[in-house]
């Protein structure tokens, strides 16, 4: 796809419709704002769940109905698709194909697909679109890099390179940071969005971190380790692993926090289920099962 078409997409200014992992809107090391975050409640209506289901010959976009969690296949995706994210400016979804070396956009029905392939792609994994800037961020473990393509930019900016095997990313544009997990190095890292050195935040206690997301209620990180089968909480500034759910499944990976309702959702592409649990604890719920390999995850109300 031409850079002209890509810039046209990134210049879109349609209404945001999706709920997804995003930054808390303040520097992680800064004092907490005077205004208290909203109190989470499980009484809010359930969101629709969109996810990528990909393993072997299967690679597809699915929708799970709110509450009933009935599964609907929306479309076939390029081979080996992984990441899935909301497009807050365009009102649709973005997904990345590890094997197809492409990033695409489609609407919530899975239609009107636009090819957003941008070089250099090798094994694109996670994608995020900045809620304010419209910048497209992604991780690529073939090039071992974290990249960003601002609106109307001609070429992507490399935010981090020389990594081992980066997986999920989380962006806090208000504070100016991008966070990611490196499965190969067993690290949680971050870098400034305006350029600067990579910081190692968590250096011990992880075996194969796949998932990371920011909790919008308190700015903490949730990290899923697929080898340990655990989800951890990481408090900014302290950067120590705190057990959140030691037995989260066989291979927990993609995570998203529904801040207003207080739920944490995650996919497990070995148990082939979607699970959730209240952010403050409680029983784990299996919402749907029987997938080929559930991966990227987006919530929409």
Description:
This protein is an all-beta fold and 301 residues long. It has one domain (3-28, 48-300): Neuraminidase (6 Propeller). The protein is 3% helix and 46% strand. The chain is built from 1 helix and 25 strands. The chain has one helix spanning 3-10; strands at residues 18-19, 48-55, 58-64, 71-76, 81-87, 92-97, 102-106, 114-115, 124-129, 136-140, 145-149, 157-160, 166-172, 177-182, 187-192, 199-202, 209-214, 221-225, 230-234, 241-245, 252-258, 263-268, 273-278, 285-289, 294-300. The chain has a 5-stranded antiparallel sheet with strand order 1-25-2-3-4, with no helix packed on it. A 4-stranded antiparallel sheet has the order 5-6-7-8, with no helix packed on it. The longest helix is centred in the first third of the chain and has 8 residues, at 3-10.
Mean pLDDT: 88
- How far apart, in Å, are the first and last alpha carbons? 31 Å
- Tell me the Rg in angstroms: 17 Å
H/I helix tally: 1
Secondary structural class: mainly beta
Write the layout of secondary structure elements.
Blueprint: H1 3-10, E1 18-19, E2 48-55, E3 58-64, E4 71-76, E5 81-87, E6 92-97, E7 102-106, E8 114-115, E9 124-129, E10 136-140, E11 145-149, E12 157-160, E13 166-172, E14 177-182, E15 187-192, E16 199-202, E17 209-214, E18 221-225, E19 230-234, E20 241-245, E21 252-258, E22 263-268, E23 273-278, E24 285-289, E25 294-300
Antiparallel strand pairs: 1-25, 2-3, 2-25, 3-4, 5-6, 6-7, 7-8, 9-10, 10-11, 11-12, 13-14, 14-15, 15-16, 17-18, 18-19, 19-20, 21-22, 22-23, 23-24
């Amino acid at each position: 796809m031409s850079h002209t078409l890509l810039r046209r997409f990134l210049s879109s200014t349609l209404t945001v419709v999706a709920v997804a992992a995003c930054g808390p809107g303040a520097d992680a090391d800064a004092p907490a704002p005077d205004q208290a975050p909203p109190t989470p409640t499980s009484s809010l209506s359930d969101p629709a769940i969109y996810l990528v289901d990909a393993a072997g010959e299967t690679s597809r976009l699915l929708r799970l109905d709110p509450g009933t969690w009935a599964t609907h296949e929306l479309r076939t995706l390029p081979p080996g698709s992984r990441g899935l994210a909301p497009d807050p400016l365009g009102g649709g979804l973005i997904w990345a194909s590890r094997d197809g070396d492409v990033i695409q956009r489609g609407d919530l029905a899975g239609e009107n697909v636009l090819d957003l392939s941008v070089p250099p792609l090798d094994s694109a994994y996670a994608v995020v679109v900045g809620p304010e800037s419209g910048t497209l961020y992604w991780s690529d473990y073939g090039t071992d890099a974290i990249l960003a393509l601002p609106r109307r930019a001609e070429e992507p900016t490399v935010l981090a390179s020389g990594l081992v095997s980066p997986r999920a990313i989380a962006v806090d544009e208000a504070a100016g940071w991008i966070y990611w997990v490196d499965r190969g190095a067993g690290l949680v890292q971050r870098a400034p969005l305006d350029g600067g050195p990579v910081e190692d935040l968590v250096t011990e206690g992880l075996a194969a971190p796949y998932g990371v997301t920011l909790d919008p209620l308190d700015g903490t990180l949730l990290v899923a380790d697929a080898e340990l089968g655990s989800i951890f909480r990481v408090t900014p500034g302290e950067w120590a692993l705190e057990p959140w759910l030691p037995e989260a499944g066989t291979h927990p990976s993609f995570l998203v926090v529904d801040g207003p309702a207080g739920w944490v959702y995650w996919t497990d592409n070995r148990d082939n289920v979607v699970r959730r649990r209240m952010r403050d604890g409680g029983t784990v719920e299996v919402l749907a099962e029987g997938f080929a390999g559930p991966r990227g995850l987006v919530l929409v109300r």
